[in-house]
Amino acid sequence: MPEIPLVPLHWHLPAHPKSVRRARHAVTESLPPALRPNLGDDLGLLTSELVTNAIRHGADGRDDDLIELVLWSADGHYWLAVSDPGMGKPALAHPGAEAESGRGLLLVDHIATAWTVRPRPTRGTSVVAGLAYRGGG
Questions:
Q1: Whose C-alpha in 14, 17, 28, 124 is 20 to 30 A from the C-alpha of 85?
Q2: What's this model's pTM, rounded to 2 decimal places?
């Protein structure tokens, strides 16, 4: 009989800056305790950057805009998908030394084992990033 995979964890949060902290906490606390020392900080940073980008660039400012997070484990990775209603395609930027923002995806690119941008089937965009892990999960 095949091993039954875990059901992905799923959250909907308002597209509001206060949701960044809630998202980071929800995702890191969902990790198995044995993996938190190794993955917690990186997964928390990925969550913060992706949710912040989704709020700033993917939401159109309506009160009913939601950011969706999905977390699952597969193939030796923890995968995080952060989705927003926007139609833009996030891309790496290389801001100058004086720039005060624009480095979020550079951090994601540096921390994640792999990441990509996918259009949603109906409306919006998802950024999916994975972190490799060994055992404990």
A1: 28
A2: 0.87
